[in-house]
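Homework help board

Subject: predicted structure for assignment chain

Our instructor gave us this sequence and asked us to write out the predicted structure in token form, then describe one feature. I got the tokens but I'm not sure how to describe them. Can anyone check?
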Amino acid sequence: MSILPPSRGKIVFGLGIAYLLVQFLYVSYYNETRRFDNLITTTTQEYFTSTNPVPITHLNLSGIQTMFYNNVQTKETKDKNLLTLCPQTPPDLNGTVRLLVPAQETLEEVAQQLSWLRVLEGGQQMPLDCQARYKIAIIVPYRNRLDNLCTFLLNIHPFLTKQQLDYTIFIVEQFDDGLFNRAMLMNVGFTEALKLHDFDCFFFHDVDLIPENDRNIYSCPDQPRHMSVAIDKFHYRLPYLDIFGGVIGMNRTHFQMVNGFSNIFWGWGGEDDDMALRVKAHNLNITRYHPSVARYHMLPHAKQIANPKRYEKLYSGRKRFKTDGLNNLEYQVKALKQLPLFTYLLVDLTSTRS
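My token output:
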């Protein structure tokens, strides 16, 4: 058995160590590069002009537009000057709501199922035997959720009618197939709604949330109100204390005071928290009904990819409150139709995409 001289042994040992070090650096560099490449790819894909795996299908309104002339009831209300104000708390509220399911997921079918209601042009409803205390707009940002929309309309009309409100439902659909901008659609809904009626307050409403308690009254709030306090998907608990999303109500003055929603939140997440910060920055308070009243069922829907830049935009939000919102809103209305169950807005937001 031969033994290497001490000097040669040190050289061989040093070469071995050097070889292992080079291998380690190569593997580490290769894996880190791949990991970084993956991050770049994910981010780039999320900000492509088209972000949807399937083509966007806009609402097909041909059938329901035909029904407008055949099935909308034309019963006239009494002279408003002769009516007394509706009570602050509507009668016959029992604290429960039965979830209604469309026989078929088409707007025509929902209109047929709601034919017993007196719904006016554009999805407006008002009480017949008293004068509503509030004139409210329900603003619903929309894209590719026909099943949710059908269930929403079938349930929300009877719910709001029972509360003796003068309300109109607005469905605001994004025209392009780029990243969804929920907040900007709600700004558009607010702006366009005021061109049609002099609304007192606005409820910004996700299409997948159905109220479960008829005592959850959509009355004009003195302070911004978070409506969807207890959602079944979250075990009827607030996910976090400052949440201000899902369904919120604000009067016209307060919404204009905070300059509406931010327009820069493309993709899922962040816009609700930004609005909460705007409310607090203007010394307003977020109010809530008791969780036993403000209960909602969330309809099933595909999970959306979160916007990775939402926290960055939240942190810089205070600098933009006065310049980012209603006062810099840009869009193009591609269609505006007053239908039996709702007023429909199709809007193009692409001119403002960053």
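Reply (TA_rk): Your tokens look well-formed. For the description, you could write something like this. Residues 244 and 276 are 6 Å apart (CA to CA). That's the kind of observation they're looking for.
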